[in-house]
Amino acid sequence: MIKDTKIPAGNATIEAITTYLKENDPRNVLELGGGTGALSKVILENSRAYLDVYEHQELFQNLMKQNLLPEKILGKDYMITKSYRFPPLLRIYDLVIVDGGGRGQIDNCDYPEAIGVFLRSLDSFKTIIIEGQRRYQKRLILEEIRRKKYIYKVTKYPDPLGGKKIATRLDCQPCSNPIRRYFNDIINRRKVVKKLKL
Q1: Quick one: pLDDT at residue 5?
Q2: How many Cβ atoms sit within 10 Å of the Cβ of residue 59?
Q3: 88 in any annotated domain
């Protein structure tokens, strides 16, 4: 059973993650932009996954540590990385969550480009959930999906409470057929980058 979090986070993203967790049993999750730890808490309380979280702001790092106290998340493994200059340690992730940063530099590292670099460094990933519109980052993600020779399915999640913060879920799988990949990208690309009408 999926538990609710008491820490504020995008409702659409929580819905996307909880839906994913109900359907799958992830082993490794990568979260780019941990914030207060709301999404991390949902993952740790509702799955058996190991969680790698990136959060560069000290204020949010401290909030995450308070919200993810060991006594609250018993027996769960997670690591908070404080700089985007260090790529993920693991090479395979079932779920990648993009929930932070816009254009601009963070920690002497261009955060949006870090997303592309991180995805490129992985051997594989299965699902990506993106909080908010993040059109620039979505384009970089789609470039890496093409580079990995994946096809993908798009699911959009509007805010269930009527707010403007959406989530986009991309379920990816390898595909050796270049024609199928091409048409899959043509059909789905617009769905990914197009703003969701509310």
Answers
A1: 42
A2: 10
A3: yes
Q: Whose CA is closest to 9, among 171, 54, 17?
A: 17
DSSP secondary structure letter of residue 109: E
The answer as to whether 162 is a domain residue is: yes
Q: How confident is the model at residue 72 (pLDDT cuts 50, 70, 90)?
A: low
5 contacts 41 by C-beta, under 8 angstroms? yes
Count of the separate structural domains present in the chain: 1
Reply yes or no on whether the pLDDT at 195 is more than 70. no
Residue 60 lies in domain = 11-193
Chain center to CA of 190: 19
- The Cα 79–Cα 63 span in angstroms is 14
Any domain includes 160: yes
In the chain, where do the E strands start and end?
28-32, 50-54, 78-81, 92-98, 105-106, 109-110, 124-131, 150-157, 167-174
Could you read off the pLDDT of 80-105 as tens digits, one per residue?
Answer: 888 888 888 899 999 999 987 544 55
What are the phi and psi torsion angles at 18 (to 5°)?
-65, -35
Amino acid occupying residue 71: E
Domain containing 23 — which CATH number? Answer: 3.40.50.150
In a domain, 144, yes or no: yes
DSSP symbol at 184: H
pLDDT at 4: 43
